[in-house]
Amino acid sequence: MDKEKDHEVEWLEAQKIEISVDLLAAAKQQLLFLATVDRNRWLYDGPALEKAIYRYNACWLPLLAKYSESSSVSERSLVPPLDSEWIWHCHRLNPVRYKSDCEQFYGRVLDNSGVLSSVNGNCKLKTEDLWKRLYPEEPYELDLNKVDSEDISKKSSALEKCTNYDLVSAVKRQSPFYYQVSRSHVNNEVFLQEAVARYKGFLYLIKTNRERSLKRFCVPTYDVDLIWHTHQLHPVSYCDDMEKLIGKVLEHDDTDSDRGKGKKLDTGFSKTTAQWEGMFGTRYWKAGAMHRGKTPAPVTTSPDASDVLVKVPTAKEDIQNLIQFPEVEVVEVLLEIIGIRNLPDGHKGKISVMFSKTRPDSLFNAERRLTILSEVGEKQVATFQCEPTGELVFKLISSSPSKIPVSREPKNLGFASLSLKEFLFPVITQLSVEKWLELTPSKGSKADQKPISLRVAVSFTPPIRSPSVLHMVQSRPLWKGSCFFPIMGKSRLAKSSTHIVDETQTEVITLQIRNSIDGAKLKDDQRQVIGVIDSGETRVLADYAGSFWSLLDSKWSLKQTNASTADNPLFELLGPRVVNIFSGRKLDYEPKHCANLRSDQDFMTLVEFSKQHPYGKAVGLVDMRFGSIEVKENWLVLPGIVSAFILHTVLKKGVFDGFNVTTKEIKEESKPTKLVAATENKLNAYSTNVETAAAITAPKKGSGCGGGCSGECGNMVKAANASGCGSSCSGECGDMVKSDATASGCGSGCSGECGNMVKAENASGCGSGCSGECGDMVKAAKASGCGSGCGGGCGGGCGDMVKAAKASGCGGGCGGGCGDMVKAANASGCGGGCNGECGNMVKAA
After folding, report:
1. Would you say 703 and 719 are in contact if contact means Cβ atoms under 8 Å apart?
2. Which position has the higher pLDDT, 154 or 16?
3. CA–CA gap between residue 91 and residue 3 (Å, rounded)
4. Measuring CA to CA, which residue among 616, 607, 363 is closest to residue 468?
5. Does any domain span residue 446?
6. I need a surface site. Which of 159, 247, 268, 719 has the fewest CB within 10 A?
7. Residue 138 lies in a domain
8. Separation CA 380–CA 257 (nearest Å)
């Protein structure tokens, strides 16, 4: 208890650090500015960037130096052009260099006091007038049509006051930052308040290190880094505050980006984590503040700022009201079990914690295991998504009860719960909780035994709307050769129905392509999509107009583009908004960390283009192989369902105008199937990348990498009840798990070889995405082979993969033949995506 009080004292001391800036308001301003810059990506590279740097040195800084302290403009605020403000932003994020440059050329640090951002809609006329007087030949706003690299180089070399700091490199280092902080929860008031408090804790660590003459490279999480950037953008305040705190201006080293094991960032983050948790007694990781992975590749290098006016439909004309689908909120959760008190004798070294939810949860309906930090000495952090309702339930399990040596059944020592609603409704009160939970003893416990308590640390993001995931269930087979556009040939369509169901398998609507009305056959250019809702009402949802489909009373149209390469959109969905449909997984849906979970040709990404998102925003994903669609926005649900149905139903040949847009042809004799996505896969798809592997490593009886091990996992876990990589080991997992029962191999995304990964009973092999052949992977009872989808193939590769009762082999998407893969009752196939060599992964009874 004394130690806990010491932690509280240290935290309170950290919160006394004085900062002369309203960091919360300024952080919101920075997020707004970064979003605006990201809509103008010519500022990231090329001649326009070089011209912006020239204008910053030649025009903005001299103007700022001349007028920022002038009495003639004391009542006016200066507003820099967007390009100059961006370069100024990046220059200030090296505070030591910015200070020395300003003092060298202008005799003082040029501050942002009296300067307003160009993105706030402020009047720029006064600044424009000053600019024109000083620089009559240089327009205030950068003219992208008049950018001459050779001319810029000559002018820059002639400048007397020009920093030799490499601003091009500084810009390239800062350009990816917005992606890491661009999620909606980052702008939440409580999230930012906690970020400011954590920033003070971060500075307190640095201050303590300096006082003890310790040289440590402290690495921030992204919430802390956002606030640190915000502070630096106020250079005079930052310099003054740091001088008072540590006696000098604190450097901001952004030159390292290698997160590999053993690298500077990796070891720095591990040491920062250890120092933080030792100093304050709370967790350093935070939900929604960890590294998201590499910035996705853009779908286009040219902005497409659509002028389409978004019309909000009235209740009467909103055809979207035809269907009812569940709107689910979601929070991202990080969970760690820190310690235990009053554990009875005989159980030490044999305990773990099972956690689950108390109520049905469409996002998280599993029971998962965690070890206890104080018992194993190494970190195990669970990351998952769930609904922000109900309670998290913790059950303490002993693997071998004392005094009953003949029993091998785990014993339940008690349970406790933590309410999510308490912290999130009706308003968010806090997003990080660390507390002792007293367990309710199980039946049979001694009456005089002291209550057992667990120290539980939980962090969650503010709730946001969860994407709607809907599945197409075919009730009758389809005819081959279905046509979509005239270039595909003409043939009749089967009279089949497709039921659209949500993830609870509740039917949303039934769709059918109709080629006749009252027995009269329609012409080839008069196909219709019919929708039947719960009431039995039938509506025409789409008409084929000869060269395109008209959807939802002509509010939308779906047509083929003239794409010349697979990088261009294959289709356009046009209506109140502009949505392009690309082959493969793009933007936020781009696979993380591992190259090939499944073939990209199985998917189509729906990307919205608008003034707000000129480079595109991923709003939906169609899985052509499994017949499902994920939709992020309510307005897209119905047009998205109809479009996905049309694409999935009629694109059967595998080639559309020269592009592979789907997989093999669906056979006429195929049986009706119900395709429901696995919850665990969905959790993995959205799992948070936990900064570095060294910070959150695999314990005995634990899990391996959290999310995103960027190096090789090696012989990572060699203990009972252990799991291997969390999500996305981008190196080789090696002989990762060599232990007792109930062990699992790779989590999601081992892009290397899994090797002889699991050799135990009740064991599972790869999670999702072992990128090799599964081979004779599972030969045990109740064992599972590849998690999701032996990607190119189980193809001759799975062989006799599962030969036991209640075993699962390949789930969905074995690229080739699975062979005699499953020879047992209650067995299932591949998940989706084992693309490499899993080897003889499981060899136990």
Report:
1. no
2. 16
3. 43
4. 363
5. yes
6. 247
7. yes
8. 25
